[in-house]
Write a structure and sequence with these properties.
The chain is built from three helices and 25 strands. By secondary structure, it is mainly beta. It is globular, with a radius of gyration of 37 Å.
Length: about 400
């Protein structure tokens, strides 16, 4: 998988290394051995290690409910430009609903993440053309609980490459996790949301509203958090039954709620809301044509990035071919091969926000290079030349002879 990533990453030129050669004689041979031993000790690369982790470390989800896990990379001082791995899970207990790369530290995904629920694996390959160093998110994976039990989440077949001319492999440590699938407790409070109806769906709503049934004699403590495991305190909050929170930030949020009676609070009930109101950050367009590529036709390539929910799809509108939006993939062969009309491209993220860029038509040819105009001028010119020659020949032949006049004298 990682070879597909390397094909899309341009490596820097390889630096030259100057090596001095020493002469050998009988007396200096031991010294030469010592020098070479020190050289190899000092210059042999030490196998470095980075860590890829599944977070959070151990969490619980109810049967039929969903849980979001994150894959994080810690390069631990190295700079990584390519990563590939397989996440394995037990398909008896969980299934993968979706994989999102929104907000990933990697910007290049040669192929979409591959989900094989029947086999219990997710395959992902990613690249960072400029390299990445530090700690950052690789991808989000949404899992749904199927039956009661413990589903191990482990990373296998992982590989990372250093950002260098030789792209040597980096040793990877992997830290898996587990997901406990449990039966929802009887009588558990059910939290609903009119604006975020599905926990597994991204919405472009600028606020988060949560509702729950209020029981007689009960008070409620709640908190909205980025953490899926945060616990509300035991201090009652107001209002109860429904709360609407205006949030300027985008991302994944968790509403944690506890029901309290006589100063004692019960277990925490959690509902997730995924909010993205920001269009993709950038959309880059390029038009090209090359022999051997797409039969030499003029094509349009485009790429975009989205930091939150991720880019979902692209749409193209061509002025010259009916002015309708069409969902396409890059590269896209222009229907108007002369590119004489405006072309619009939109990049949509998973929440439905989009960014649009306009590609102006190619500059029209000068009037004197037009084939129609050329032949028109040629015909008119030949006609004018023919008329001119005809007139000149008439002039050289002299005036036309006049009719004979009658010799009969006029009558008196």
């Amino acid at each position: 998988m990682i070879n597909a990533v390397l094909k899309h990453i341009q490596s820097a030129s390889q630096p030259s290394v100057a090596v001095k050669h020493f002469g050998v004689d009988g007396k200096g041979f031991p010294l030469l051995i010592i020098l070479y031993t020190l050289y190899w000790i000092l210059n042999t690369p030490i196998a470095s290690a980075a860590t890829i982790s599944v977070l959070p470390q151990g969490t619980e989800v109810g049967v039929g409910q969903t849980s979001l896990v994150e894959l994080w990379l810690d390069t631990e001082g190295e700079t990584v430009n390519a990563l590939s791995f397989v996440l394995a899970f037990d398909p008896q207990f969980v299934s993968v609903e979706s994989v999102s790369t929104g907000g990933s530290v990697f910007s290049l995904f040669p192929v979409p993440p591959l989900v094989l629920n029947e086999r219990g694996v997710v395959e992902l390959s990613a690249g960072a053309p400029g390299g990445f160093a530090g700690q950052g998110l690789v991808a989000n994976i949404l899992l749904r609980g199927l039956r009661v039990g413990t589903a191990a989440l482990s990373i296998t077949s992982s590989q990372a490459l250093k950002h260098s001319p030789t792209a040597e492999p980096i040793s990877l440590r992997v830290l898996g996790s587990s997901l406990q699938v449990a039966t929802p407790e009887t009588g558990e409070i059910v939290i609903t949301s009119k604006d975020h109806a599905e926990e597994s769906v991204w919405y472009n709503v600028p606020f988060i509203r949560m509702s729950w049934p209020v029981r007689p004699g009960a008070s409620y403590s709640y908190v909205l958090s980025r953490s899926p495991n945060e616990e509300p305190d035991e201090v009652p909050d107001e209002p109860t039954g429904e709360i609407k929170l205006s949030i300027s930030e985008d991302g994944v949020f968790y509403f944690h709620l506890r029901e309290c009676r006589a100063g004692t609070c019960g277990p925490t009930v959690t509902r997730r809301a995924m909010k993205d109101t920001t269009p993709p950050e950038r959309l880059e367009l390029a038009v090209g044509a090359a022999s051997g590529v797409l039969e030499g036709k003029v094509f349009l390539s485009f790429t975009a990035s989205d930091a939150t929910s991720g880019v979902a799809h692209y749409e193209v509108w061509e002025e010259a071919v009916g002015e309708t939006w069409e969902r396409v993939m890059s590269p896209y062969v222009l229907q108007d091969q002369a590119h004489q009309g405006v072309v619009r491209v939109r990049a949509y993220d998973t929440a439905g926000n989009y960014r649009e860029e306009i590609l102006s038509p190619l500059a029209p040819e000068p009037w004197y290079r037009s084939e129609v105009v050329f032949w028109g001028i040629l015909v008119v010119g030949l006609a004018a030349l023919g008329v001119t020659i005809f007139v000149k020949r008439r002039g050289q032949a002299g005036p036309a002879p006049q009719a004979n006049q009658s010799s009969t004298p006029p009558l008196p």
